[in-house]
């Protein structure tokens, strides 16, 4: 049998330990002694390896000097045969390797003899002496083997040893083909040794970084807060700590290695970075997931192509890489869709990036006030909101704006006060917060002179825009004037935001000052943050999801941009009666024309608009739009513009709608037709859908550079075609055809039988057993020239596409106006679908005269229902009828049992008013009202631990804010005020607050209480009416009192709250309830006795002094009995 190769044998025996080597040595010695006793005349073997019988001697062993490998050799014939097959180069290499691995002290095992078999097993008298010497040196042998084992562990024991060996074994380049049935065309495989294999030994273990890793570190050290995704060939890689983050967030494999980006001693034993990789075509998916998880993500791309690099001076240097894209939640606009939110999160955030700054506080404690400036930008739509305001120690104004805007990212300028900072942390820190997901917070310092620097920076920024706007100086100058009139805190925020968005390439959004909007514009009803939460306007209070909220009940929109506009409408109800009447008229017309041709046409148009035009237009404005997206947007705009005829000509047909909002919105759509068609005629639609940069433009609209490079490529391809004749002549054949194999073009195939006719200058690329494939020098020169022209053509095509996007961006305003008109139509159609539900009616808006003597605020609701509860309760909602008006009833004092429906009733009243001023029909038989300027609520019991405030502190603080903000045209809802403290203090505060809102503020008020002793207040105050929630009380079979809630509103007072009934429903143990009932009866008896004693005292005083006030107190005490 042919012996095994030395390399294979070495690999199989390289894991011997000192224990196994010593065992083999002992076995050899025993075998020698046995053979010497049984055959004294036979010459003993000369080595332990020869002592093994032939039948057991499967692999002759050779102990190498370094102890790492054990080679084998066969008999002399096999050795001669093996050695004869080795080339001189291989023999020299093997000899050199053996000399390098030879230790100073040889092992006791001698090399295998090359003598014949008979001579090898002959008697050798020196063997016994040699065996004795081996036995004497046993201890030395053990020590040497342990030293060899230690060297083995040092060489192969580190974590990446096997990976590095596999890397060396796989460092060959193989070109394969499918073999035919007879395996005659199998590809020849030529092993190409890797460059790393040349560096074996101590020098190869140095932890020097590769040029690519040095590139990465140079970029990473400038962006330590960013997760970098670096392009490396046909994949993107994460390195170091970024790889660990990517593995966690993306559920991909992280190869262990260095995590830190500095030379830390704890990672001195590691010579490479930890890494993770993703395919090129999945970049956008994974980047989007990282951004949605709250990370700042940067993409590092190769900014030079292989062809141009090969033709340049840096062909031996690594690819030039630069940070080309940065993304965060607030700045991610590279995808048309919304960012994915966590499944457990609530409603998604508004997509705003909010910048905030504030001045040093004035005063202390409850008298503390600060001036706050905010600027919120929505890069995906171009909307900008700004405001500056004074806020008290509760920071209610800040909270209101944050809950309205719902930012997904904060930029804090300077230091915030403790109260504001804790509020921001509370609202942004949780993964399931009121914004729907965890918000990112970044901070920038604020110097003492930042206000002046900000003004100078903003002035210079917009002055540059004025210089660039040649021919549009009036518009640019008006833009500059508008910005320079902003308040100082807003200017500071604007300067910081310009710097921040410049890093992401989005600073051009501030050119669109048409969409600058002040938050505190008094053309809308004030709905503060507390009201948004208590009325569940945007999300429910159970799990903070959108289902069950007012917006959920109203949202029947068909487009993304329509949905965003409706969200703004819901949060900012109208105060202008004329505008509100126009909106209601539009909704009523759509309702009346339901199922008619105009409405069906509008609904089809909206349903077929799948593209988020608002986001796509801003992506075009930023120059980040793709070719397929651009053609989709333009074709959608063309279809929208052609849906309705233009109304500018005299022969135009009558408009399909009469209401002003509908008529104006429909008329705005055809105005963009000519503009859109002028862009579409330049584009080849089929090539654009395939994202083909070379065929994107029609031939008539290609640039001169594109045509030049296309002609150069055609010329090179013609030369390649004519070169076939020269190649055929050299091969002495009639014709030569080019073939393409494994992506390599212009290969010339030559049968191996004719290989001698191939010129020496031809380069062999690949081959099979039957043929070889070559590139001629001319082919290599021409293909390189063609590749250079292709790269230049691609660059020219990209420049032309960017120029087209810039041209379209110049028409952003009219295109955006058309999309806004379509969004308005979508919102009105959604409200008409709500109005079509059973039991909805159009509200009647009453005159809102300034002269309150002739007309005051009033609300009258007949058979009203809760707009969300009626959709979520299977048994249906029991309607109510109520009214509030000047001079009376100005306020309702509402009592009733627990769970009787008091809170649901007052919330339903507020929501119906809110719906009416949004422009929606309301769930009632009738509603007439004057417009309310604000809805203030103080409901529920909650503490504010992040600000160190108790439940009662939150109650009275919110009440104080309401008393300071409410006007005679406000609707105020106070639910169980005073329950956070003792009964006497709570009742006193509730009494005083009710007295103030009725006698001083004179606003419409709904006041819920469980303090029955407040009921007489209604008789003592003009305009206050007692209401209660009806119920039936009866004794059950078990002797306990059972309550049946009727959920109807009626006049009068409920003298008991029946809290024990709620405790029974909550399954409090019966023993506890019995004790509670006994104590309750005893306390009621004691209270009645005290009141009777009081009545008797008042009665005696009244007889003594009939003209005193004791008679009034007597009557009041009798009523309380």
UniProtKB/TrEMBL annotation:
Q: Which GO terms describe its biological process?
A: mismatch repair; mitotic recombination
Residue runs in coiled coils: 577-619
Q: Where in the cell is it found?
A: Nucleus
Here the segments flagged for biased composition (Acidic residues) are 175-189
Question: What residue spans carry the region label Disordered?
Answer: 24-206, 842-865
**DNA mismatch repair proteins mutS family domain sequence ranges:** 970-986
**Pfam families named in the record:** MutS_I (PF01624), MutS_III (PF05192), MutS_IV (PF05190), MutS_V (PF00488)
Q: Which cellular components does GO assign to this protein? A: nucleus
Composition-biased stretches, type Low complexity, lie in 31-41
Query: Where is this chain primarily localised?
Result: nucleus
Q: Where is the composition biased (Basic and acidic residues)?
A: 60-71, 133-150
Extent of Polar residues compositional bias: 104-114
Q: What Gene Ontology terms describe what this protein does at the molecular function level?
A: ATP binding; ATP-dependent DNA damage sensor activity; mismatched DNA binding
Instruction: List UniProt keywords, sorted A-Z.
Output: ATP-binding, Coiled coil, DNA damage, DNA repair, DNA-binding, Nucleotide-binding, Nucleus
Q: Which PANTHER family match?
A: DNA MISMATCH REPAIR PROTEIN MSH3, DNA MISMATCH REPAIR PROTEIN MUTS FAMILY MEMBER
| Task of the protein | Component of the post-replicative DNA mismatch repair system (MMR).
Tell me its family.
Belongs to the DNA mismatch repair MutS family. MSH3 subfamily.
This chain's protein is named DNA mismatch repair protein
Species name: Geosmithia morbida
């Amino acid at each position: 049998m042919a012996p095994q190769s030395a390399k294979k044998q070495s690999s199989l025996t390289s894991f011997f330990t000192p224990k196994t080597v010593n065992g083999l040595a002992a076995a050899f010695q025993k075998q020698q002694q046995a053979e010497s006793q049984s055959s004294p005349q036979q010459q003993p073997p000369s080595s332990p390896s020869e002592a093994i019988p032939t039948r057991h001697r499967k692999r002759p062993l050779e102990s190498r000097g370094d102890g790492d490998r054990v080679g084998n050799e066969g008999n002399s014939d096999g050795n001669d045969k093996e050695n004869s097959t080795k080339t001189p180069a291989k023999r020299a290499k093997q000899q050199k390797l053996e000399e390098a691995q030879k230790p100073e002290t040889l092992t006791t095992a001698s090399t295998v003899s090359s003598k014949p078999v008979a001579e090898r097993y002959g008697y050798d008298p020196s063997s016994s002496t040699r065996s004795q010497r081996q036995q004497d040196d046993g201890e030395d042998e053990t020590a040497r083997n342990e030293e060899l084992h230690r060297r083995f562990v040092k060489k192969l024991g580190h974590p990446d040893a096997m990976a590095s060996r596999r890397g060396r074994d796989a460092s060959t380049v193989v070109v394969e083909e499918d073999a035919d049935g007879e395996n005659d065309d199998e590809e020849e495989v030529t092993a190409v040794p890797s460059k790393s294999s040349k560096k074996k030994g101590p020098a190869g273990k140095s932890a020097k970084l590769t040029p690519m890793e040095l590139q990465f570190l140079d970029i990473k050290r400038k962006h330590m807060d960013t997760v970098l995704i670096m392009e490396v060939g046909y994949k993107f890689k994460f390195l170091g700590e970024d790889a660990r983050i990517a593995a966690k967030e993306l559920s991909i494999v992280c190869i262990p290695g260095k995590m830190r980006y500095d030379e830390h001693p704890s990672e001195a034993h590691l010579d490479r970075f930890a890494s993770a990789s993703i395919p090129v075509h999945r970049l956008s998916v994974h980047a989007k997931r990282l951004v949605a998880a709250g990370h700042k993500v940067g993409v590092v791309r190769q900014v030079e192509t292989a062809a141009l690099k090969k033709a340049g001076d840096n062909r031996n240097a690594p690819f030039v890489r630069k940070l080309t894209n940065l993304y965060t939640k607030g700045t991610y606009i590279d995808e048309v869709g919304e960012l994915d939110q966590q499944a457990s999160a609530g409603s998604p955030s508004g997509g705003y990036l909010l910048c905030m700054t504030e001045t040093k506080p004035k005063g202390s404690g409850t008298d503390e006030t600060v001036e706050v400036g905010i600027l919120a930008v929505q890069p995906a739509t171009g909307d900008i909101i700004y405001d500056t305001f004074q806020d008290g120690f509760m920071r209610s104004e800040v909270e209101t704006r944050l809950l309205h805007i719902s930012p997904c990212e904060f930029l804090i300028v300077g230091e915030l006060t403790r109260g504001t900072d804790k509020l921001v942390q509370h609202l942004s820190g949780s993964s399931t917060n009121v914004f729907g997901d965890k918000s990112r917070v970044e901070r920038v310092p604020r110097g003492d002179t930042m206000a002046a620097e900000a003004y100078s920076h903003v002035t210079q920024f917009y002055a540059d825009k004025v210089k660039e706007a040649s021919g549009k100086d009036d518009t640019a100058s008006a833009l500059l004037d508008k910005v320079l009139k902003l308040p100082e805190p807003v200017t500071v925020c604007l300067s910081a935001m310009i710097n921040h968005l410049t890093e992401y390439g989005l600073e051009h959004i501030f050119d669109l000052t048409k969409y600058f909007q002040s938050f505190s514009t008094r053309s809308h009803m004030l709905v503060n943050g507390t009201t948004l939460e208590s009325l569940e306007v945007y999300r429910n209070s159970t799990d903070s999801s959108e289902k069950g909220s007012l917006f959920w009940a109203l949202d029947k929109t068909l487009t993304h941009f329509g949905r965003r506009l409706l969200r703004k409408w819901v949060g900012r109800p109208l105060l202008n009666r004329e505008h509100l009447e126009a909106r209601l008229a539009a909704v009523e017309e759509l309702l009346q024309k339901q199922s008619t041709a105009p409405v069906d046409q509008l609904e089809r148009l909206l349903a077929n608009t799948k593209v988020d035009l608002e986001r796509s237009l801003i992506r075009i404005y930023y120059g980040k739009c793709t070719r397929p997206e651009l053609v989709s947007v333009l074709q959608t705009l063309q279809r929208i513009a052609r849906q309705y005829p233009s109304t500018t000509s005299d022969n135009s047909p009558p408009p399909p709608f009469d209401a002003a909002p509908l008529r104006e919105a429909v008329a705005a759509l055809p105005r963009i037709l000519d503009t859109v068609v002028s862009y579409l005629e330049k584009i080849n639609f089929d090539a654009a859908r395939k994202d083909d940069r070379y065929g994107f433009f029609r031939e008539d609209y290609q640039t001169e550079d594109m045509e030049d490079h296309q002609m150069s490529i055609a010329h090179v391809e013609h030369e390649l075609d004519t070169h076939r004749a020269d190649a055929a002549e050299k091969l002495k054949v009639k014709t030569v055809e080019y073939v393409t194999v494994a992506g390599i073009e212009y290969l010339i195939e030559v049968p191996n039988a004719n290989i001698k006719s191939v010129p020496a200058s031809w380069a062999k690329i690949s081959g099979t057993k039957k043929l070889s494939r070559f590139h001629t020098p001319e082919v290599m020169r021409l293909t390189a020239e063609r590749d250079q022209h292709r790269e230049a053509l691609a660059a020219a095509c990209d420049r032309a596409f960017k120029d087209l996007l810039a041209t379209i961006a110049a028409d952003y305003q009219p295109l955006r106006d058309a999309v806004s008109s379509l969004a308005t139509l979508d919102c009105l159609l959604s409200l008409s679908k709500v109005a079509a539900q059973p039991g909805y009616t159009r509200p009647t808006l009453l005159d809102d005269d300034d002269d309150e003597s002739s007309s005051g605020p009033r609300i009258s609701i007949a058979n009203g229902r809760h707009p969300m509860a009626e959709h979520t309760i299977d048994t249906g909602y029991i309607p109510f009828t109520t009214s509030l008006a000047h001079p009376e009833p100005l306020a309702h004092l509402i009592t009733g049992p627990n769970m009787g429906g008091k809170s649901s009733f007052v919330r339903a009243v507020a929501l119906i008013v809110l719906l009416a001023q949004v422009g929606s029909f309301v769930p009632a038989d009738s509603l007439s009202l004057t417009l309310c300027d604000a809805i203030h609520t103080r409901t529920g019991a909650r503490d504010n631990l992040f600000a160190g405030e108790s439940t009662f502190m939150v109650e009275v603080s919110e009440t104080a804010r309401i008393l300071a903000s409410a006007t005679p045209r406000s609707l105020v809802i106070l639910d169980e005020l005073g329950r956070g403290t003792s009964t006497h203090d709570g009742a006193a505060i509730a009494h005083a607050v009710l007295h103030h809102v009725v006698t001083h503020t004179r606003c419409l008020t709904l006041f819920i209480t469980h303090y029955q002793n407040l009921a007489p207040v209604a008789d003592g105050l003009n305009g206050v009416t007692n209401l209660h929630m009806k119920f039936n009380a009866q004794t059950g079979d078990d002797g306990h009192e059972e309550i049946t809630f009727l959920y109807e509103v009626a006049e009068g007072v409920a003298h008991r709250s029946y809290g024990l009934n709620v405790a029974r429903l909550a399954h409090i143990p019966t023993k506890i309830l019995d004790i509670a009932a006994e104590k309750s009866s005893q306390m009621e008896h004691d209270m009645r006795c005290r009141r009777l004693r009081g009545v008797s005292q008042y009665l005696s005083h009244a007889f003594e002094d009939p003209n005193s006030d004791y008679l009034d107190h007597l009557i009041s005490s009798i009523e309380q009995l």
